[in-house]
Prior knowledge:
This protein is mainly beta. It contains no helices and 11 strands. The chain has strands at 3-7, 10-13, 18-25, 34-39, 46-51, 58-60, 68-73, 78-83, 92-99, 114-117, 121-126. The strands form 2 sheets. Strands 2, 4, 5, 6, 9, 10 and 11 form a 7-stranded mixed beta sheet that branches. A 4-stranded antiparallel beta sheet has the order 1-3-8-7, with no helix packed on it. Strand 7 and strand 8 (78-83) form a beta hairpin. The model has no long low-confidence stretch (mean pLDDT 95).
Amino acid sequence: xxxxxxxxxxxxxxxxxxxxxxxxxxxxxxxxxxxxxxxxxxxxxxxxxxxxxxxxxxxxxxxxxxxxxxxxxxxxxxxxxxxxxxxxxxxxxxxxxxxxxxxxxxxxxxxxxxxxxxxxxxxxxxx
Length: 127
């Protein structure tokens, strides 16, 4: 099993920054694609960013390109999401997720492809 715990959320003003962390337990973390998703009130959960199991490839939804950066440190079993230039539209519960299968070659953007989820951390951006 893979267990994930997010941290780093909070309340920030528009234009500010936050760095989210996702700490994982489990021996197979380093061989799984990882993703960040978010869900705002009244909206469906959406893909934000993903990273390959080796860390060499990343993918971002258009609305966060140039502002968010995803990274991973397999030695620390941790995934990060650096969020800059935040806007109120970024307000949501952010969850990290691990691929349901080890060593797959793509960065997946659908919730179906991720089999392990954290509880989420709230990010609120005020205007």
